[in-house]
Amino acid sequence: MNRDTGFPAADAENDFLRARRRQVMSKLAAWMRRAPDDVNIMLPFDEVVAALGRAGERRLGLRVIRLDSIVGSVDRDREFDRRFRPTSGQVRERWQRLALAQRRGESVPPIEVYRIGDMHFVLDGHHRVSVAHALGLATIDAYVTEVLTRLSPEGVRYRGDLLVKDYRRIFLDRVPLTGDARRSIVLTDPEDYGELAEAIEAWGFRLMQDEGQFLDRVTVAHRWYDEEFQPVIRLLREAELVDEQTEARAYMSVACERYRLIRSHRWDDEVIGAIQRNKRR
């Protein structure tokens, strides 16, 4: 429990020391739990935008936002941890000056943030956010600019999540699916997206050879989904070969197994039977 001394300057100094102590203890606890390295690291704004693909932006003006929605920074991600606790004593002077102003009831200007989905990234006001956290506030005033992205930011919470999003964005450049088809192709291993894109491009090449005409990427993507992916998934479900994995992962697993066992790109009962027999071994 924090006890104020009644002297704002001394209390501001204690605020900073508590914040630093909590940051050190949190880092030590993460190390002892063998938690992933990115658990206490801010999300870098530029990396998030690069992974999701920028589609535009719009200014929303002055808003009240929740402090716990601020998860990243535009350019100061090394001075504070994920919860905006100072990572060193270098920010101490300015930090305590702001904490003292807050304790004296002085006016503090709004911060500036970018919004992506329900996440906020600080452009200006890192120290103000840190002090607000230390003083137990729940919200803060902010000038908000919303950044629109090509991929949904859903599922992004830590830096490690960006790799999957980045590979998915590249996959959709190569295989431009839309609507339900786009939403249904989900993989958890980022490298699987590259492997699947190559398989679809090879399928499209064989299709163009068979039909003797050039087909653009959009046409190949949707014909693969309608003529290859969906019928195969129906076969796999009937044969109970999907299990707990995603449909896209199930398709990739059996597509590779099919060619290894039978050296064929066709799908029929013989192929499914061979895959089932091999899985039972």
UniProtKB/TrEMBL annotation:
Source superkingdom: Bacteria
Protein name (record): Chromosome partitioning protein ParB
Source organism of this protein record: Actinophytocola xinjiangensis
